[in-house]
Structure prediction request, 335 residues.
Amino acid sequence: MPKVTAWLDAHIAGIAGPYEFELIAGGRSNVTYRVRDAAGTRFVLRRPPLGHVLATAHDMAREHRLITAVGRTPVPVPRTMGLCTDADVNGAPFYVMSFVDGVVLDDPKKAEVMTPALRRAASEHLVDVLADLHAVDVDEVGLGDLARKDSYIERQLKRWTTQWENSKTRELPEIEELAAILKRRIPAQQGVSIAHGDYRFGNCLTDVQRGRIVAVLDWELCTLGDPLADLAYIGIYWRDPDQGPTGAADPSGIEGFPFYDELVERYAKRTGRDVSDIDYYRAFSAYRLAVIGEGVYARYLHGAMADSLPDLDVMKNSVDTRAAYGLEMARRVRP
Prediction:
């Protein structure tokens, strides 16, 4: 990667080639490399998926802008070091940020090294960091023009309803009923916040020795919106102690991790927000994930992503499960 090496040498202070690049995350999402320079200094390079050509630097520049802005707040994020918008350097725009040492807790096995007390501490800090994120004045940090500030749920429902119609592979009455309830019972939005869009242990780095979140990652879905959507999203993956773990993208369900309702209560105390409609937002999050899942399933089914074929029945059933869970939550919502 001679062009990347030359760019790094010219634009990033305190490092020097040659560089070693190690892929640490990839796939349909943005790709992340751990990089080590000649002196052993570690940092991170993030770019779009390989083979994915962007017409503009919008995605990388937007993500870089977000992390830079959030870096001026109490929310822990890597420190941005530089942005390259010249696609000739690396085939697509990319940015560089500091390396943060921590564990991505996306499986119960990764939490087994922690004591029950540390598991609880990490869970509580996960909520506290989210509360800090939602307390950020978006105008003060220069993100006031990132997106519209009003009618978040209405706009999201319109988007995902259209997406369902365009990608569905079959009729699913649960989805239709769920969408109808969600449209009928939209709660009043409680202010505007930076909405991460995919906030959970699996998108954070955790110091497992201290039970602390040391960096929030994966900001590509971030926008401005209703803060309770982020809180509810945690609950889609969360397993209460009496349910046991599933191993599906979350460490919860083993001893020490609190009940989800405890997290909601902690958030309410930290923020002062009314969380009585949290089941609505859980239903909305399940609907959103079901529609996204159907879109991915449809692309695999039609051969557009045949490079690594998963179990299609499992994928299809996960959509059904999300829809059923969302409908269960929606039916709890006050008329």
Remarks:
- Residues 2-98 form a domain with the Phosphorylase Kinase; domain 1 fold (CATH 3.30.200.20).
- The longest strand covers residues 20-25.
- The CA atoms of residues 84 and 94 lie 5 Å apart.
- The chain is about 45% helix and 15% strand.
